[in-house]
Amino acid sequence: MAASNSSSALSSTFYLTRIPGYEEYHPWISIPFCFLYLVGITGNCVILHIVRTDSRLHEPMYYFLAMLSLTDMGMSLTPMISLFRVLWSISREIPFSVCVVQMFVIHTFSFTESSVLLAMALDRYVAICHPLRYATILTPKLIAKIGIAALLRSAVLIIPLLARLAFFPFCHSHVLSHSYCLHQDMIHLACADIRFNVIYGLVLITMLWGMDALGILVSYIFILHSVLRITSQEGRLKALNTCASHICAVLILYVPMIGLSIVHRFAKHSSPLIHIFMAHIYLLVPPVLNPIIYSVKTKQIRQGILHLISAQKIGTL
User: Fold this and answer.
1) Model pTM?
2) Ordered DSSP codes for 128-153
3) What is the mean pLDDT of each successive set of 10 residues along the chain, which is 317 residues long?
4) If we measure between CA atoms, which residue out of 197, 214, 218, 109 comes closest to residue 153?
5) For the residues of 250-303, what is the DSSP string, one character each?
6) What is the CA radius of gyration of the chain?
């Protein structure tokens, strides 16, 4: 489908990409995507409900888990709406203003999730290395401040990057390479000097994802040092087991994120299917797997789910 050219970004319309070569199967392809999205939304809503209603879970670890669930849902909501619009042949068109809002939401929550994972690593550090001071250090007031600071940091720093897009002319193709908008995808369509966006984007990734990843690594170095000082093997395994879910959550976010960045920077001319696959792995895997992992690995969450199910069964009798 040919896209009309326009020299004004604000009046531009862009075109989202379908899964090439499988257009006739799009309604069927939408079924697993819809199922995974519903699993993710349901799982994260259950986590939020249990943390809110179960007084036993009113602890720092579970407050941070609730933040993780909120960021997972925030990051996946707008791109999934765009995906279903494309797969159900409702519309491939997306105005520039809507695209910018979508990019803002995706990138803000993506950076925020990284910050939340850093906060969860610090939570595990305090719980294992300073257990007697755990409740006094991580107070509800401090946890709320951490959550707000993580969100504001991500939102404020992404604004200059997206604001410059309004001044770019898009005189070539307006066809994006995904079924949703990403900054690194859109700047390659601009007929302008994009060096500021490229450099600022790299600096932003280094500052936010890089510093968060470094903070997580340092936290686990201290945790491992503290665990190795525990005399009993059972005590060591118990301490490390409390970190297993968090380590999985870190890998689930960072591995697809790094993979997508590598594809965009070093495999620009590879098959479109690779770009599309990596883009959806990046957005679907964390919200789907995080609730499952925490439900399986965390006894208190598992008990809360069983209590919720039993309460509903009693209510239907």
Assistant:
1) 0.89
2) HHSGGGHHHHS-HHHHHHHHHHHHHH
3) 48 79 82 90 93 89 94 90 85 88 93 95 93 91 95 94 86 81 84 87 89 94 89 83 90 84 68 74 88 87 82 63
4) 109
5) HHHHHHHHHHHHHHHHH-TTS-HHHHHHHHHHHHHHHHHHHHHHHHHH-HHHHH
6) 21
